[in-house]
Write a structure and sequence with these properties.
With 391 residues, the protein is an alpha+beta fold. It has 13 helices and 7 strands. It starts with a helix and ends in a 10-residue tail after the last strand. 36% of the residues are buried. The model has no long low-confidence stretch (mean pLDDT 90). Bound molecules: guanosine-5'-triphosphate. The site of guanosine-5'-triphosphate has 17 residues, from strand 1, helix 10 and helix 11.
Length: 391
């Protein structure tokens, strides 16, 4: 038969299993995982204290057990804050826990008020679950939906509601029996819900952590290691997406292909390491000069692609010229001296009937022309409608 003790054992088992799952994330180095692990350990210890209730040593379940469980939810909240790159308010957390335990001690050893203890516990835990839901909701990634964040937020708010209902119920019916000896359906429902609190939240945390790991590895895979510009593959994917958006919105789009002039001679003269430094310096100039929406990709060697979304043909031309002038005016320190380098560019303004390949070909031809015309210049490709062959 289902009893409160049996439910406590099931909770402990669930907890232990989630602890093992969480332990697999220790190596990830993600902030928050350590606190979530501690929350599960503390909950396991709290459950062990509750199981001693029949021994009739009230200090163990009431003060030690509730203290450990209170600390577990504080730890879980701290983990959520650390995971969301927020600081942990250690002092307020400790004060809230001490106050909570002081009130519980008063409600047991000065006036023995079981129902009031349940109300206070419900307010304490309900409040923390509300804070957990709020923290995760506030730090939900802006650009995509993530199941882990949605689940954790929803579950935490649901638990807040559950605790509030329990609190209100005990205010209205203070005659309800002591939980450990109460086999009523209502008590068992509350205990069953309580059993899934930390394991459920931990499951949400694990899914959020997996999402963060996946996002970080996607980011690494899409970036060029040396310059941090987008890799060729990621740039083409990004350009394709932007082109589809431009088709929908009718906003202008330009592609600028950039190439550092005489880069081979920089390598030959100063060595490969300095060549690498020039590549990094070049990317830095671009990133400092561009808007976040303008995307730079390294297409290979010393050739880069820049997608200018939303800029008219005249604007794209002015931006390209400004970038060229910035590179020309820039100096880079090599050993004791300074040196400078230049770049050439081929600019093509997108016409809606053009594919990405056709646009790239035009920009590439313009770049070739810029090199042939003496380098350190931007050549603009003009789109011409292909004429249909005579009938
Ligand atoms: N340091 C360094 N060099 C690279 C890297 N990738 C390619 N290169 C070098 O870039 C050089 C490109 O040389 P070229 O294609 O002849 O171009 P260039 O010398 O800039 O001549 P123009 O483009 O005609 O002005 C080659 O020597 C490659 O070895 C890299 O990641 N680091």
């Amino acid at each position: 038969m289902t009893s409160p003790a049996f439910l406590l054992l099931v909770t402990a088992l669930l907890n232990f299993m989630m602890l093992l799952v969480l332990a697999s994330l220790r190596r990830s180095g993600l902030p928050g995982v350590r606190e979530w692990l501690w929350a599960n350990v503390l909950e396991l210890l709290a459950l062990a204290c509750y199981l001693t209730t029949p021994l009739n040593v009230p200090v163990i379940p009431i003060l030690v057990g509730n203290g450990l469980l209170g600390a577990a939810i504080c730890m879980f909240y701290a983990g959520c804050r650390r995971f969301s790159q927020l600081s942990v308010p250690v002092r307020p957390l400790v004060i809230s826990l001490v106050l909570f335990l002081a009130v519980l001690a008063g409600l047991r050893f000065y006036v023995d008020q079981f129902a009031m203890r349940v109300v206070v516990t419900s307010i304490y835990h309900g409040g923390f679950h509300g804070l957990i839901g709020y923290t995760i909701l506030r730090n939900h990634p802006q650009t995509r939906s993530t199941y882990g964040h949605d689940f954790t937020t929803g579950f935490a708010f649901l638990l807040t509601a559950g605790y509030l209902v329990r609190g209100v119920l005990y205010v209205l019916h203070p005659e309800i029996k002591f939980w450990y000896t109460d086999y009523s359906t209502l008590n068992l429902v509350f205990l069953t819900l309580g059993a899934v609190v930390i394991p459920g939240l931990t499951m949400g945390a694990v899914v959020m952590a997996h999402d963060a790991i996946l996002t970080a590895s996607e980011e690494v895979a899409s970036r060029d290691f040396l310059t941090n510009a987008l890799s060729r593959k990621a740039f083409i994917e990004y350009a394709t997406r932007q082109m589809n958006t431009a088709v929908r919105t009718g906003r202008p789009l330009s592609l600028l292909l950039l190439d550092i002039d005489h880069f081979k001679s920089i390598n030959d003269r100063y060595g490969h390491a300095v060549g690498d430094e020039v590549l990094r310096d070049f990317t830095l100039i671009m990133h400092n000069a561009l808007r976040a929406a303008d995307c730079l990709g390294r297409l290979g060697g010393e050739e880069f692609g820049l997608l200018l979304y939303g800029a008219s043909q005249a604007e794209a031309r002015a931006i390209s010229e400004r970038l060229r002038a910035l590179v020309e005016a820039n100096t880079i320190r090599i050993g004791d001296g300074l040196t400078s380098y230049t770049m050439s560019g081929g600019l093509a303004h997108w016409s809606p009937e053009e594919s990405l390949q056709e646009l790239t070909l035009r920009a590439d031809n313009a770049l070739y022309e810029a090199k042939g015309a003496g380098r350190n210049r931007i050549v603009v490709s003009q789109f011409t409608t292909p004429t249909s062959p005579p009938q």
